[in-house]
Amino acid sequence: MNESLSKTIVKLKNEFANNNKCGSHIQELIPIAPSEKLPIDKNDLNMLHNFAKNNSIYSSTYELEVLDIPCIVYEGDMSNYWLDSIKHDTSYAPFYPIWILSAYALALYTKNLGISEVIDIGSGDGGIAYCAKITGIVSHGIEIDETRLVSGEEGCVCNIDIEEIKNNQKTGSFDSNNITDDIKEKIQTAVSQVFNAVQNAN
């Protein structure tokens, strides 16, 4: 990755954070167009803006020039996400999304290392997985907050339970080695039908 690009992103963020005073819980800035200082691919830049525009965290925007770079600032409210993230015993830190530009720079650096596939566990708003996908990396975002998945706020969740029944009663222990090839094929068919339904819904 062009080292000057990452350094400029850091300078841009610092300048913005130090000099822009606002009451919003969260702010994100993205350059309006590629420039000599930030030579981001035009299509990639459009995809970054699309992510911010369609992210429910952000609710308003305004234009601002930072370090002579025209940017759009996205503002939002983290209250609901922050409160939900600390409700669970397994949550050790409140949810706070990574800056989109930081996620993009991270994805470019990862790609330049020769890595072709990434998995983001606890993906939150999906920014890291999304930016990795933009750069051509196969990416998987895995959310660990099932409550938000069930409510449809961060994708969807599908639980598939397999139980062994003998003499009309569920067995206490289940050994997957006891599944016959015929049953495995039926399970695979059922799972494929679920995946197809989800893909068609998109």
In short:
The chain is an alpha+beta fold. The chain has seven helices and seven strands, in the order αβαββααβαβαββα.
Count of separate DSSP helical elements:
7
Average pLDDT reading: 78
SSE class? alpha+beta
Strand arrangement within the widest β-sheet reads: 1-3-2
What does this structure look like?
The protein starts with a helix and ends with a helix. It is built from 7 helices and 7 strands; from the N terminus they run αβαββααβαβαββα. It is elongated, with a radius of gyration of 22 Å. The chain is an alpha+beta fold. The strands form 3 sheets. A 3-stranded antiparallel beta sheet has the order 1-3-2. It folds into 2 domains: 3-150, no CATH class; 165-201, no CATH class. The model has no long low-confidence stretch (mean pLDDT 78).
Short key terms for the protein model shown above:
202 residues, alpha+beta, 3-stranded antiparallel beta sheet, two-stranded parallel ribbon, 7 helices, 7 strands
List the helices and strands and how they pair.
Elements: H1 3-19, E1 26-31, H2 42-53, E2 58-66, E3 69-76, H3 79-85, H4 100-112, E4 117-121, H5 127-134, E5 138-142, H6 146-150, E6 165-166, E7 169-170, H7 181-201
Parallel strand pairs: 4-5
Antiparallel strand pairs: 1-3, 2-3, 6-7
Helix pairs in contact: 2-5, 4-5
